[in-house]
Amino acid sequence: MTDSNLRLPAEWEPQAAVLIAWPHDGTDWAERLEQVESTYVALAAAVTRFQPLIIVVADAALRAHATAKLQAAHADLSRIRFVELPYDDTWLRDSGPITLRGDGNRFQLTDFRFTGWGGKFGAAQDDALIAGLVQAGVFGSAEHKRIDWALEGGGIESDGVGTVLTTWRCLTQRHPEQSREEMSNILRDGLHAKRVLWLDYGYLEGDDTDAHIDTLARFAPGDRIVYQACDDTDDVHHAELQRMGDELAALRTPGGKPYTLYPLPWAEPIIDEGRRLAASYANYLIVNGAVLVPAYGDAADNEAARIIGEAHPGRVVVQVPCRPLIWQNGSLHCITMQLPAGLLG
Known about the structure:
With 345 residues, this protein is an alpha/beta fold. It is built from ten helices and 18 strands. The protein is globular and about 50 Å long.
């Protein structure tokens, strides 16, 4: 570790903005663009109730199109900044910057290699996105540090005080030649963490990220962990998520105490064109003063929102319709990246 003052903030710490990229017909959303844009509009309207939003767009025409959609939805355009850059897709949780914070207003934009989730998809433009944002002056004087090791932002969770939570299933797929100890050392050094906690169990059908932690378990303030449970004993996920819950119960805080666990309800299976979609309630987004919760048109939506609100006391709970997103195997948290307060130029 070269600078012990740097740390990875928790998502519930004050934010400068949320970063997203607008879908267009050159992305994988083309087949259902209108439906997915409705989710992006709802997300943008929700975020701008509480803080600024940066939207990456492919060109001026897409900027004008998105602006018209947002105006029609009465989103607060005064809180929106557009940046024109090329991108392959819109999963900015995984291609956006993992920002470390130091003393005062010092920031490091940690730019891990983005491989399209282990080479499943083309990712050259997405891998260059952070450098493009830096060149556009979005982040002021923040240091940009490239790390030639594959990692996606959705693959890690931080409690803000030195603990990183991740999954073995994901990182061993990215780096099959490395041991857990070797990967733990890289995560500790790259993220300036004190310790790395691993989950061996947990997955969702329809998830092509190889079990990103942000679809499974999330740190919350006050030594809490919110996680996706499955109470349907006939469901293929039941045994695996039960084992994951047992793993979470066995984890200890830095002070040696168990975490307070908040299991989330299980949505009914959503089948689309013969395949099951990954409808995780754990894939929520925290913003200043609020928590935005995915809704899938399921009977469990309201209970999930209630539990997430309970785990994040003092925040407004806003449900965002996310059923169109899971067609491409992700949800609300996956398409967003929060930027810590003080970062923006």
